[in-house]
């Protein structure tokens, strides 16, 4: 299907993947700063806010590595970026479920912690902040998982295509070598011998 061969069926993966990786890095960095600085989730205790910051930090590193891998590195690094993306999505989903469950079911603990962190807030304001954070988290996690799964699937198909082309090229080179033309593509020199130095 064309929608899985290109981003939204329009943008080629070779062009879109570095942009996507850069977007991951920017989003991860911004939300990491917001989480560490407690500018978002002001009601949340440290044990809820800091894990979000760490998740965002990992998204930043994933994006930075992905940008490098898709612009300057080998196919192997591109495959690692795909693996990191799948791993990040799984970790993100697991922590999101824990966070939302705490916000929704540990109401008294969350509200008491909120009032300790924000002495000027009352119970009603803390509870409203908790409900708002939970609703926003559910919406953002749903959107992030849908698009994250789709983007990673497109990138994975693109990298698989590159790997297949490289495999076919290697097979063609091997066939030529068997027919007495060219060199064995499986043989790679780990060092260079200076013939003139040996003669001397």
Which properties best describe this structure?
single chain; 200 residues; mainly alpha; 7 helices; 78% helix; elongated; disordered C terminus
Record the SSE blueprint.
Layout: H1 2-5, H2 13-36, H3 46-71, H4 75-105, H5 107-117, H6 123-178, H7 195-199
Helix pairs in contact: 2-3, 2-6, 3-4, 4-6, 5-6
Tell me the major beta sheet. none
Overall strand count: 0
| Backbone CA Rg | 25 Å
Low-confidence stretches: 189-200
**Helical segment tally?**
7
Shape assignment: elongated
Order of helices and strands: HHHHHHH
Q: Termini, distance in Å?
A: 63 Å
Tell me the structural class: mainly alpha
Assembly annotation: single chain
- State the helicity in percent bands: over 70%
Proportion of beta-strand residues: under 5%
The overall pLDDT, averaged over residues, is 86
Kindly describe this structure.
- This protein has seven helices and no strands.
- The longest helix has 56 residues, at 123-178.
- It is 78% helix and 0% strand.
- Helix 3 (46-71) packs antiparallel against helix 4 and helix 4 runs antiparallel to helix 6 (123-178).
Quick overview:
It is built from seven helices and no strands. It is an all-alpha fold and 200 residues long.
């Amino acid at each position: 299907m064309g929608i899985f061969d290109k981003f939204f069926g329009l943008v080629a993966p070779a062009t879109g993947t570095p942009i996507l990786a850069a977007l991951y890095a920017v989003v991860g960095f911004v939300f990491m700063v917001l989480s560490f600085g407690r500018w978002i989730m002001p009601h949340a205790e440290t044990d809820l806010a800091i894990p979000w910051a760490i998740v965002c930090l990992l998204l930043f590193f994933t994006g930075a590595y992905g940008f490098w891998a898709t612009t300057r590195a080998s196919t192997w690094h591109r495959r690692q970026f795909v693996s990191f993306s799948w791993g990040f999505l799984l970790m993100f989903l697991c922590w999101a479920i824990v966070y939302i469950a705490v916000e929704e079911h540990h109401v008294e603990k969350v509200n008491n912690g909120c009032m300790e962190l924000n002495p000027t807030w009352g119970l009603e304001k803390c509870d409203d902040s908790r409900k708002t954070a939970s609703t926003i988290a559910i919406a953002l996690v749903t959107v992030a998982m849908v698009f994250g799964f789709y983007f990673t699937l497109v990138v994975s198909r693109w990298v698989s295509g590159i790997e297949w082309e490289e495999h076919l090229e290697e097979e063609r080179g091997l066939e030529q070598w068997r027919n007495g033309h060219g060199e064995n593509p499986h043989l790679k020199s780990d060092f260079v011998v200076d013939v003139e130095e040996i003669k001397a």
